[in-house]
Amino acid sequence: MKKIVLAASLVALFSMTAFAEDAPGLKADKAPPPPHKMDDGYRGMEDARTMTVKQAKALHDGASVSLRGNLVERESGDIYLFRDKTDQLQVYIPMAMFDGKSVSPDELVGISGSLDKKQQPARVRVTHFQKQ
């Protein structure tokens, strides 16, 4: 009797997956391709539409911006001077955004955040920081 119950429960256990529907969401049965083999998809700030500092300064208060350039100097606390080929702009980058990385002025960085024109001069409050 125990063998019949055991056999029936094993058959029921393994047949449940056959009746399962293909539900939406992540299917973890395959490994993802390595980053250098990806053709499409989100790969960080490289995919974001970048703009120049000059274009960013012309936007309205609170606009989302994505910039690529250099952190030239630290002005005070978490305020840095960011420069690209068109102009320069103050950016507010909390120390936690650096995630223990150090950046020198000759290294290219990508930032994105919101434009704060209420401050004089205007500055960007950085929400994403990436060392290129």
UniProtKB/TrEMBL annotation:
InterPro entries found in the cross-reference section: BOBF_sf (IPR036700), CarO-like (IPR005220), YgiW/YdeI (IPR016052)
Superkingdom classification of source: Bacteria
Database matches in Gene3D superfamilies: Bacterial OB-fold
Matches recorded under Pfam families: BOF (PF04076)
UniProt KW Lyase keyword: no
This protein's UniProt keywords: Signal
Annotated signal sequence range: 1-20
PANTHER family with a match to the protein in the record: PERIPLASMIC PROTEIN, PROTEIN YGIW
Name of this chain's protein: YdeI family stress tolerance OB fold protein
Source taxonomy: Bacteria, Pseudomonadati, Pseudomonadota, Gammaproteobacteria, Enterobacterales
